[in-house]
Amino acid sequence: xxxxxxxxxxxxxxxxxxxxxxxxxxxxxxxxxxxxxxxxxxxxxxxxxxxxxxxxxxxxxxxxxxxxxxxxxxxxxxxxxxxxxxxxxxxxxxxxxxxxxxxxxxxxxxxxxxxxxxxxxxxxxxxxxxxxxxxxxxxxxxxxxxxxxxxxxxxxxxxxxxxxxxxxxxxxxxxxxxxxxxxxxxxxxxxxxxxxxxxxxxxxxxxxxxxxxxxxxxxxxxxxxxxxxxxxxxxxxxxxxxxxxxxxxxxxxxxxxxxxxxxxxxxxxxxxxxxxxxxxxxxxxxxxxxxxxxxxxxxxxxxxxxxxxxxxxxxxxxxxxxxxxxxxxxxxxxxxxxxxxxxxxxxxxxxxxxxxxxxxxxxxxxxxxxxxxxxxxxxxxxxxxxxxxxxxxxxxxxxxxxxxxxxxxxxxxxxxxxxxxxxxxxxxxxxxxxxxxxxxxxxxxxxxxxxxxxxxxxxxxxxxxxxxxxxxxxxxxxxxxxxxxxxxxxxxxxxxxxxxxxxxxxxxxxxxxxxxxxxxxxxxxxxxxxxxxxxxxxxxxxxxxxxxxxxxxxxxxxxxxxxxxxxxxxxxxxxxxxxxxxxxxxxxxxxxxxxxxxxxxxxxxxxxxxxxxxxxxxxxxxxxxxxxxxxxxxxxxxxxxxxxxxxxxxxxxxxxxxxxxxxxxxxxxxxxxxxxxxxxxxxxxxxxxxxxxxxxxxxxxxxxxxxxxxxxxxxxxxxxxxxxxxxxxxxxxxxxxxxxxxxxxxxxxxxxxxxxxxxxxxxxxxxxxxxxxxxxxxxxxxxxxxxxxxxxxxxxxxxxxxxxxxxxxxx
Length: 811
Fold this sequence. Notes:
Helix content: under 10%
Largest sheet: 22 strands, antiparallel, barrel
Number of domains: 2
Main location: membrane
Family: Belongs to the TonB-dependent receptor family.
Subcellular location: Cell outer membrane
Protein name: Iron complex outermembrane recepter protein
Keywords: Cell outer membrane, Ion transport, Iron, Iron transport, Membrane, Signal, TonB box, Transmembrane, Transmembrane beta strand, Transport
């Protein structure tokens, strides 16, 4: 077996491309060849080229140099991944089309995030907290059914901070200033405490003004991390860490693309607004007020509150390793806590509010060693998460208020064996048994304004636009309890004073005589368990000392769950089986690196999230299962150093994703699905016909057919003291869909995005100053489109052109 393993002290010095001159020194020691990067994705230290798995890794220096200070920019370096932020605490991750649009915290991520070895239940906590003083980020592509704490169908994103270094007192900082009043500063200090311990402190401050005219798409983040490393003996190591992050500001903000009318032709009317308008400007609100809302049938009102976010993420964790006579024992206890409050516009609501508290405890224990020809990893995992959420989603004539407590307990046992059949041939096999227990206790209260008389659960077809005077019916302010809402309605003269609240459905006549307000109750108390045995089989062959061939088959699973969705309180697990064949190669004395991977994924019962109509005719956001899909394609990753100080790289991904079976049932007005349809013959309780839409043959979301990343770096020596480093990176992403309705405006157009850097630095390290520009094209691209349940086409966009200066130093 090729053995390029390096100790952990070298990790930060051998990132692929760094801001400091340390990578250049690593090149010298490697005969001017391509640098190595160390990964721990298989629970051991090995070079990226020795890891016989589908993985991309980005070193900490490269993250800084390329301005990847938050997760949604990872696609600049990893073609397979897409990460979007939809407002509030909603962060969605997709790898090769496998993922889920996150609008609630009871749905597990399909792509599992982890921070410092700790698997996280929610993506927002990981990506909001961690992107500074990093050793690297690892992106594992495909199911992780064996070695990772919670099963993942799409992959895993491992965020790994720099560790304390024994025997070294050092530090460093990077600060940049740019347009939109951007300031990005982070620093670290490593303090040796005797010969056997060290303390590492790191901090960050990141701010910029909003990219949208209403102040949204801004950034206001502060973070602090402390780690203490103790190695009292040669066989025992203890690392204890803690981190705290505060995220404030306005937050992510969508823009109006236009309005649409469901029906046979899906009539679309462009808004005519700029992609940087936001939803809360005079122009945006004027456009909003031209839209008629149902079922109250009044014109919509201007946005009633500026959006904001106020979230804190903190956690403590430890890593204890002990070399025993039979292998290395690793114990990882961790606790994480999130408090997040936000007002946000979401899918053009007026306005949505959430207040959430997440508590997570996890414990992982594993033993790794070898016996004869066998390397082994065995372990156990425990995960306990409680989410408490209050949410209010003001749709003006419909006001859902929800409260819930959701709990997940997960238990797993796992093991993987690697048999060294010969010095160059290995067989790999693994199993993991996972048992998930989930429960939910919550309620949805809807306040629905109707005109024309006392309605059933939904208004009959005879209710028509114009039966109420525009603006005469309530545009709900932001309340989070039924008592608050009823009190406001009585004090403002909409319903009779002294109106009491009773359990169950309740009708409040409007004093104007225009209609009524219906209050509905939908409690959910449910629990259950899900279990699955997942497996892996693989073969590895060292064709030459610098060429690795591998093939794997691996299964993955994501537990089902329970939800606040009227008529659909639960959903089933999803599963995936991935077939991968790959080759990793170095040629010409480490001057050329060529990695090739082919894959076929069989995906079943994908958990998808969308708006639909309940059997009682109430608009609901629901999670359901999509049927079967095939995902196939290939990756080619080429790095060339034609000269000692020149590096060229190219990454190409071809992706063919297709649903083999995917049908959805819904009814007007949520029949805005651009797929062949037919009547089922069934109806809702009010007689509305149910329609079946067959989306078989459609591609999966965020699965562009072609993705291309190109990069070049040139180092120019300026005498013996200085050197100039110039780099340019560009990425092409083919068109892809971003929402499950497959409407035209939900298709993200193909686009290029190009960044460039120019840095002057000391040749022997320690100081650098540079300039950067990102998104040279200055085109804001759709990141996350959505058809709003109140008739708007909206989208969040990528950042415009940004530029600035950066100063870095280490000591």
